[in-house]
Description:
two-stranded antiparallel ribbon; 353 residues; Rossmann fold; 11 helices
Amino acid sequence: MFEDMVTARYYEERLQEEYLEGKQPAFDISAGPIPGELHLAAGHEASSAGVCRHLRDDDAVTAPHRPHHVAIAKGVDLKRMSAEIFGRETGLSCGKGGHMHLFDPDVNFACSGIIAEGCPPAVGAAMAAKKRNEDGVAVAFLGEGAISQGAFLESLNLAAVRNLPVVFVIEDNDWAISMPKERVTDVEDGSQRADGFDLPGTRVDSDDAVEVYRAAKEAIGRARDGNGPTLLEVQVHRRMGHFMGDPESYRPDADKEAAQERDSIERLADELRTRDVDDETLEEIRERARERVDEAIEWAKEQPEPEPDAAYEDVFVSPPSGVTDEEPSYELAGASAGAGARADTEPGTGGDE
Length: 353
């Protein structure tokens, strides 16, 4: 878990450096090697590391617009993910998806920038596993700002009705973009949403990776054993703005300072020291993570950009054998010539009056 967490943190620190290149002094979102928005997850690492430790490659995971820590914990190819973020043709989606739309079928990972969009596909993956009589599990990560979305609530309902092997993980950082949680919901504990569907709901009140690990072990074990879904909420802390370039003028200084003081990585490091893991070993893990990240990002920057014509590729599915481009013709059974004549009559000429 510790290596997953430090890898995710350092990876996003490197992305931040690369992203800001060429965007200053006046912030230009379209400039630099990584154009567009960039949502970082510093402070969220405990949730993904604690949950994904219990998953296999064939278990499905969906993540929201802040996906890098989840992707790393799930085992997404770091080089190809980096190439995708830089918009290169060797990326996971040939450079067309960017950082909010990462897909790696080798480890069954997907994400989307649409709020709560990952919940229905996770339920679908869980339903498929159940129909195949397999013990696969699906996990949907989402933020607390998504818990009033219809897609989330409908997914909870279907998962409950079909007793599906799926776990919903709410990362509660108290902010839905610039909106504090108390202004959008009266439910302080998002896991209480499970009550309306007669599902087990659990909340980890801190970003303690060990506590997340224990709660996730129970939830995923329940799903894998055929005992249905769980709603798990984890308190995390957003150490940065909603996106790179966000001035966070809406956020009290005390809240921002508190988020910086609560570091789940250092908390886990302290826990490991109590278990006789020395500082030298911890630093070796950090250095290994830095080397891996640096190699992935430098590799990605050297990859070719897609040719312009590549924009037309993967737009339509190639038709299966035997399907032609000819327009099909249909004849209604029992249709009379008169009916056909009426159908051909111009509107307003009395043909259907």
